[in-house]
Design brief:
heterodimer, A: 684 residues, alpha+beta, Multidrug efflux transporter AcrB transmembrane fold, Alpha-Beta Plaits, Gyrase A, domain 2, 5 domains, 4-stranded antiparallel β-sheet, 19 helices, 20% strand, B: 312 residues, two-stranded parallel sheet, 11 helices, 6 strands, 67% helix, 11% strand, elongated
Chain lengths: 684, 312
């Protein structure tokens, strides 16, 4: 009865093999590396780049541990971090601005494992150090901005259609257009409805004034929000690229949030500075007609604002925004035809059209490019428009050094966010703490495992050893599974790993206790093993499902670190049920199942209650069935595995039992020539 | 080797009253401390900034406090944890300064005072995120409780579901009571531990309930309390060994897990210890209180199972 078919053993063997194979890469560790990837897709990474990198490093006598071309980037391994940092600095200065040079860690696992798809688990930020940000898009700010845009557009539309209006006022989240009579209002509404499909209109009459209220429709708001988040993600990606991070994660979280994770970033201050820069770009015209001095004295003329140019020169700029940073697709530093430093800007289609119009109308005048951060505006540059510029290729030159050109290009390229963003959550882990955390998690699991293993092996002897082996395999399968899934391991995840060790042993304890119970009840060894596994099964399933419910809830409602904990917990429950029930049974079957006459179950010394087998199965038919299977007699107790009292009580009903318990206990102990209560099952 | 040797069933149900007194007292005390002292909610829930810094030598806490007072942050809390070289600084939310600047300013000032300082961890949580995490935590607690009741009701009977969840919520309240009394920091990881305990500790009740059901089928003439006593006595050994094993791992976490895992492990420890007690005394007592009957379970079983001697 305690036998497995060949396929069952095969399943165990295969799972063991897979577990080993996929766990293996985690033990090779990682080595420092430098990763060179192109900043833009147009620049390709090929063998020439690889050759160039190799030559550069060779010239500087920097030893490498190998150069690879992988997934569109060149990766160079080094023996230690000193060489790695030197190499990074060197490559940065020689390769120039077209590439991202990032520090990275590469797994050391051998090629054959990698080609099998066996990769180490990805370490979370709390284990490898780095920065985690959650940014929220300020949608109110974005809506405000688009209302500004709409108010300008509505004015020009009404003017164009020659519809008279008495005024236009922006209030919280709505525009109020005032009319003198209801007819014009109706006319205006019809006209505006045609032009602005994203706006909803309603009437409002206060006294004898006729107001038309325009609000942005919910659908349009939603669309704007999505577009703003996507645009911001692109911008953040560009900014992160400037930082040189090997494997950044930038993703949308919820409707208006973005998560940025920068593993291995050492200079967190710089990361925050660049990411936290919630800058937007605006192109406006410079007002050279009005008196600048008057403005400086505090009276800026209507429709203009006073700003400072880089270097502190005051400048008067019109309020009307002509173009925003969203239209800029690229900006690069370079030189103009007179070999002066310049910035080359590319605009998208819409931007090109607007820009062409703008330059045609304003030749000879100055335009200003403003960078707005946290309501602080700064004029990045205010060039003179020399000619009409079409085709969307703009060149800004004059009065700047090549360093400044580079700076401006970076700001233009990375500076534009569709809507302002705020950091609402930040978790930074220093590299030293990351290494400590790995040791902490690893030690907790290791020492916990050792303690449990020793205790269980001593307590249950051979069956204990089998339980420990199953527990070890459970850990192996769990780590292997996590590696296959390429899950991110965090410190709470490691805690769950350790906890799994403590909780998974429960299934084995249940089984072993059941087997002991059955032996105590007088079953033959093979029967006891069989019954122990069968009966424990339902209990194990019930108890694990309740824990699984908790795990799923943690996964569903948890965030970040708690999710990692939940994933490991849930997977651990699944693997532990498999190993405790199926695999440990397999081992038992393999070792004992084939023995026709197993006369001893190595599960530790079993103690039989004094008096009688009071934990006996009562049902008469059950008892009858069992009787023949009970070892023959106590005289041969040297061989028999369980010392069953020489006489089985004829009636073990409850009433009888309590009588024995209360009354005859002391006498039975002395008078009866019963064997000592301790089982005769001898231990070697 | 066998630790637990009971000649007869331990009359747990006879000690029901004593158990009830202990449970109700600890429960009321816990609720009292939670309501009067309140929880020392971590930065995850309240929002704010936590800085963990390390020094090469014993850190001068007074100096750090002075630096912070100079920065006009007198309400910052500064304390050692783990070793005397590691310092934890908690800063409440300040609306006028952005998080990014705040931690940078503090670190720069600390560096000026003592150049050996090393940033180990910075955590900033905005107020809206904290509120969300708290709500999600409460939702998770609700979901787990309902899920467990539903499962137990389906697998056993509604009385078992109710008894199981009351026994375990009793544990949860006591864990939280401990955190309130000692003002230990209640963070997101502690919440994870509490929920894990909720799932884990129900195991106990399930194992005992399983035996009770089995006993209802086998011990036909026994009284309800005898059935329950017998079930608890039989599973006693397993209860202690399992919890002992889990506790061993948790002790390893307490010793080697560092600051982040410390309170996590502490919550688990309380949960495990009270889990043993509550599954033995509370769950079964409530079951009796609810008037569990043999018919509640046995009638649900199919006839053949009852005489299924082959299982033995």
């Amino acid at each position: 009865m305690n036998r497995y078919a060949l396929w069952q053993y095969l399943i165990i063997a295969v799972s063991l093999l897979l577990g080993l194979l996929y766990t293996l890469p985690n033990f090779y560790g990682e080595s420092p590396a430098v990763q060179i990837s192109p900043l833009r897709i147009s620049v390709s990474t090929d063998t020439t780049l690889m050759q160039r990198v190799e030559d550069t490093l060779k010239q500087a006598n920097l030893e490498t541990d190998g150069i690879y071309l992988e997934e569109g980037s060149v990766k160079v391994r080094f023996a230690d971090t000193d060489v790695q940092i030197k190499a990074k600095d060197l490559l940065e200065s020689t390769l120039g601005n077209d590439y991202i040079i990032a520090l990275n860690l590469l797994p050391n696992s051998p090629q054959w494992l990698t080609s099998l798809g066996a990769l180490p688990m990805y370490l979370g930020l709390d284990l490898r150090g780095g920065v985690h940000f959650m940014l929220a898009v300020d949608m109110d700010g974005a809506l405000e901005k688009s209302l500004d845009r709409y108010s300008a557009d509505i004015r020009s539309t009404l003017r164009e259609k020659k519809i008279a209006y008495a005024g236009l006022e922006k209030q919280a989240k709505k525009l109020i257009i005032k009319f003198r009579d209801a007819e014009t209002r109706a006319q205006a509404e019809a006209e505006l409805k045609n032009t602005f499909s994203d706006l909803g209109f309603s009437y409002e009459d206060i006294g004898n004034r006729n107001h038309l209220v325009a609000t942005i429709s919910p659908e349009a708001q939603l669309r704007m929000q999505d577009a703003a988040v996507l645009q911001n993600i692109t911008t953040l990606r560009n900014r992160v690229n400037e930082l040189g991070v090997a494997e950044p994660i930038i993703q949308k979280a919820g409707s208006d949030r973005v998560i940025v994770q920068l593993p291995g970033v050492q200079d967190t201050a710089k990361a925050k500075e660049i990411l936290g820069r919630t800058a937007t770009l605006e192109v406006r015209m410079v007002d050279d007609e009005h008196d600048l001095d008057a403005a400086i004295r505090g009276k800026a003329p209507f429709g203009t604002e006073l700003y400072e140019e880089r270097g502190g020169i005051p400048i008067l700029v019109k309020k009307q925004v002509l173009l925003t940073g969203e239209r800029i697709t690229d900006a690069q530093p370079g030189f103009d035809k007179d070999n002066q430093p310049a910035v080359h800007i590319n605009l998208d289609n819409n931007g090109s059209r607007i820009f062409k119009q703008l330059t045609r109308d304003n030749v000879g005048r100055r335009m200003a490019i403003l960078l707005i951060e946290k309501n602080q505006a700064e004029v990045v540059t205010a060039p003179v428009i020399r000619e009409e510029i079409g085709g969307g290729r703009v060149q800004i030159s004059g009065r700047m050094t090549s360093m400044e050109a580079r700076d401006v290009a970076l700001l233009l390229r990375a500076g534009a966010l569709a809507a302002p963003m705020d950091i609402i959550e930040e978790r930074t882990v220093g590299p030293s703490l990351g290494a400590d955390n790995i040791a902490r998690g690893f030690n907790s699991t290791l020492y916990g495992f050792i303690a449990v293993a020793i205790f269980i092996a001593v307590y249950y002897t051979a069956f204990g050893v089998i339980s420990v082996l199953a527990l070890g395999l459970n850990l192996l399968l769990l780590v292997g599974l996590l590696s296959i899934m390429q899950a991110t391991l965090t410190l709470p995840g490691m805690a769950a790993l350790a906890l799994t060790v403590g909780m998974a042993i429960d299934a084995n304890v249940l089984i072993n206790e059941r087997i002991r119970d059955e032996l105590r009840a007088g079953l033959s060894p093979q029967l006891a093993i069989h019954a122990g596994y069968e009966r424990a099964f339902g209990t194990i399933l019930d108890s694990n499902i309740t824990t699984l419910i908790a795990g799923i809830a943690l996964f569903a409602f948890g965030s970040g670190p708690v999710k990692g904990f939940a994933v490991v917990l849930c997977l651990g429950i699944l693997t532990s049920v498999f190993t405790a029930i199926f695999v440990s049974r397999g081992m038992v079957n393999l070792m004992y199942g084939s023995k026709r006459k197993l006369d001893y179950v190595p599960i530790g010394k079993i103690w039989i209650p004094k008096g009688q087998t009071n934990h006996e199965v009562i049902s008469p038919d059950e008892r009858n069935e069992k009787r023949p299977k009970i070892p023959k007699s106590t005289e041969e107790s040297g061989k028999s595995d369980v010392n069953v009292p020489s006489e089985i009580p004829s009636d073990a009903s409850d009433t009888n039992r309590s009588a024995v318990q209360s009354g005859g206990k002391s006498t039975t102990r002395t008078k009866n020539k019963r064997k000592p209560a301790e089982s005769k099952q001898t231990q070697s | 080797m066998e630790i637990f040797r009971f000649n007869r069933d331990i009359p747990f149900m006879r000690w029901r009253k004593a158990g009830a007194v202990i449970s109700i007292t600890t429960f009321i005390l816990s609720v009292f401390f939670i309501s009067t002292k309140g929880l020392n909610l971590g930065v995850d829930f309240t929002g704010g900034t936590v800085l963990e810094v390390g020094y090469t030598e014993t850190a001068d806490l007074q100096q750090i406090r002075n630096v912070l007072t100079d920065l006009e942050m007198p309400d910052a809390s500064v304390q050692n944890f783990g070793t005397s070289r590691d310092v934890l600084i908690r800063l409440p939310i300040r609306s006028e300064i952005s998080s990014a600047q705040l931690s940078e300013t503090v670190l720069a000032a600390l560096k000026q005072a003592d150049s050996t300082v090393e940033m180990r961890r910075v955590e900033f949580v905005g107020p809206q995120v904290g509120q969300e995490l708290l709500e999600n935590g409460a939702l998770a607690l609700l979901f787990v409780s309902l899920g467990i009741v539903a499962y137990l009701a389906m697998r056993f009977e509604w009385k078992f579901g109710v008894a199981g969840i009351i026994a375990n919520l009793h544990d949860v309240v006591i864990i939280i009571g401990f955190f309130a009394y000692f003002q230990w920091e209640f963070s997101l990881t502690v919440l994870a531990a509490v929920l894990a305990i909720l799932g884990y500790s129900v195991n106990e009740s399930v194992v005992i309930f399983d035996r009770i059901r089995e006993n209802f089928r086998k011990l036909r003439r026994a009284s309800i309390s005898q059935v329950i006593d017998n079930a608890i006595t039989l599973t006693m050994s397993r209860t202690i060994i399992t919890h002992g094993s889990t506790q061993m791992v948790v002790i390893a976490m307490l010793l080697f897990g560092g600051e982040v895992l410390y309170y996590f492990a502490l919550a688990l420890t309380i949960g495990i210890l009270f889990g043993i007690y509550s599954s033995i005394m509370v769950g079964s007592s409530i079951l009796m209180l609810l008037g569990v009957k043999r018919e509640d379970l046995v009638k649900l079983e199919k006839k053949p199972l009852e005489n299924d001697g082959a299982v033995v």
